[in-house]
Structure formats: structure tokens, C-alpha cells
Amino acid sequence: MAVLVALLSLLVAGVLGNEFSILRSPGSVVFRDGNWPIPGERIPDVAALSMGFSVKEDLSWPGLAVGNLFHRPQATVMVLVKGVDRLALPPGSIISYPLQDVSIAQINRVRF
């Protein structure tokens, strides 16, 4: 059964609102609720690991847990919002993590 629901990630970059928010993810991808900061340059690694790919360096970040290895997402959608301190996201199943050591130049270079 193909999972058509993509892992939807929202990356909010602002002066006061540097955060990485997960708006929706399939059941096979487990993001833990917590306040663990993640380095901005590791966002592509989080996306790759969530889809079941390997990365060059180990990511010892507790926000992403091992899910079902046989039912991985087929796509990752990332949206970058510049110049906004905070978005009014609906409460509920949204999980956000603080970004550390991130600059707009780094975010603009994010490629998969």
C-alpha cells in the first residue's frame, strides 16, 4: 500500500522564531515530543533518515525515533518561511524543535 501522505515539514526562520516544525507525518515516522535543539545544517539529514536513507554522519538527536522500516514515506515537503517571527499554527499534533546555529544562508543551501 503506497503512502501518499508525505512527511510535511515546515521550517520557520525568523529573528525570534527559529524552529523546525513537523505539521504532519505518516505513522511509520515517529517524531518525539520534546524541546531538543537541532543544528540547522542537519535538517537534510532528518529528512533523509525519516525516509529510510542513510547519512554520512550519525545523527544523535532524540527527536526522531525508529519507525516501521518497511513503510517509509515517498516524499518530503519542506517549506521555508523567511522574515516571520512566528506562524499561527493550529494547535494539536504539531511538534516543534528549536533550531540552533542556523543562518538564512545555510537554509538557502538545503538540497536533497
TrEMBL record:
Residues 17-103 form the Renin receptor N-terminal domain. Pfam families: RENR_N. Keywords: Signal. It comes from the Eukaryota. GO terms for biological process: positive regulation of Wnt signaling pathway. GO terms for molecular function: signaling receptor activity. Residues 1-17 form the signal peptide. GO terms for cellular component: external side of plasma membrane. This is ATPase H+ transporting accessory protein 2. The lineage of its organism: Eukaryota, Metazoa, Chordata, Craniata, Vertebrata.
